[in-house]
Design brief:
The complex is a heterodimer of chains A (343) and B (106).
Chain A: H1 6-20, H2 31-38, H3 57-68, H4 80-83, H5 130-139, H6 151-156, H7 159-168, H8 176-188, H9 196-201, H10 210-220, E1 239-240, E2 265-266, H11 288-297, H12 316-327
Antiparallel strand pairs in A: 1-2
Helix pairs in contact in A: 3-7, 3-8, 5-8, 10-12, 11-12
Chain B: H1 2-21, E1 25-31, E2 34-35, E3 39-42, E4 47-52, E5 61-62, E6 68-69, E7 78-82, E8 87-92, E9 100-105
Parallel strand pairs in B: 1-4, 3-9
Antiparallel strand pairs in B: 1-2, 4-7, 5-6, 8-9
The chains are: A mainly alpha (343), B alpha/beta (106).
The complex binds copper (II) ion (CU).
Amino acid sequence: MKLIDVRAVAFCAAMLAVFSAGISSASQLDKSSLEQWKTDYVRPGLVPFPEDNPYTVEKADLGKKLFFDPRLSGSNAISCASCHNPAFSWGDGLAKGVGHGSRQLGRRTPTIWNLAWAELLMWDGRFETLEEQALGPMAADVEMAQDMSTIVGELSAIPGYRALFNIAFPDEGITIDTIAKAIATYERTVVTGIAPFDRWVAGDETAIPEEAKRGFALFNSKANCVACHSGWNFTDDSFHDIGLNDDDPGRAAELPGVEKMRHAFKTPTLRNIDLRAPFMHDGSLTDLAAVVRHYNAGGIQRPSLSDDMKPLGLTPAEESYLVAFMETLTSPEEPVSIPLMPR
Amino acid sequence: MLRISLSLLAALGLVVSAIALAATDHTVTEKGKKFSEKKLTIQAGDSITFVNDDNITHNVYSKKVNQFDTGAQKPGASDRIVFKNKGKQKVRCAIHPKMKMTVVVE
Ligand SMILES: [Cu+2]
């Protein structure tokens, strides 16, 4: 073997640690592996913004208004927030999104939490930046069905927007580009807060229950969730087929020549996850217990199935620990205020 | 005299065009889901050979300035890409999007 995956080494070492600590006393958690694993989940201090679209308060405030403004759609009735609704953890609570003319979309609406750290966007990764992505749904017939040749004119006819754009983008005013930049800047400010799990990582032993700590240990060892849901935001930003029963080509639409990209979708964040059922790109799993049962069974065997998907042999108690762990990833959030619309 | 300066000019001309044509081929290896360079500055007309030195399939693509897409790149395979246009572009693996680098073409 030419190369050894660092994570594989860490995982093997972790497994060894678990075994040497004595699997026999399952109630006894190995403190040193827990402390070791915790270091991989420390929250970052700063939100990253790109060089060509740095943060300003004015841009973010304007972006928030645009995100909540239904006048960005062809019918003037659907906003980004109709589907990415803060009351549903920035999703819509539906198995599949519903767009212009109440038409059902092909996939579930993902959350927009923590996208400042994202590499590629959409379930199949077809967009590179939030700026590029923002224009997609406006123009899409099934989503907002906005005629993009008239959007600049429509917004320019609203004096309130003219003033706000002139402050946020003094030399540019209202253009397709500045609309996208403002929305993207606002989206990057949508960051999950401190969850009980974070307080535990920071040293507060009482922050989460014992079952959740066991779930965290399983997450990093026997259950192998960490192979994909890695780091503080619980995603490797990659694409995997986890063996769900549906014929969506996933990332293979972008990469037809790559076997492993068939049925492969972007690994979603697990932050605030218990607020976003039903789960998966097709909304096919109704709750977290069903998700863990799916992983325990190992998914549909097919050539594209990820090499990290194997039947896990978890006991019912272990399944419940994983759910208990995921429930500690939810931060208490202040309700999001809906902005007044420029007239 | 005249003959000398003419041949001198011709020789100079040759040197100048030789410099303009001397496109360099740079090598970037892919190992441990990383490119060997974070940022590479090259001259317009230069090429980069991307070599998959990993034991998993990668891909190399870019959507800006000099667009290209190698498709699936098996372990051991390599692709040579010529960068004609000047500018700054992000280059990534579409399978492992965290594997990325910047190419600056001057
Ligand atoms: Cu790759």
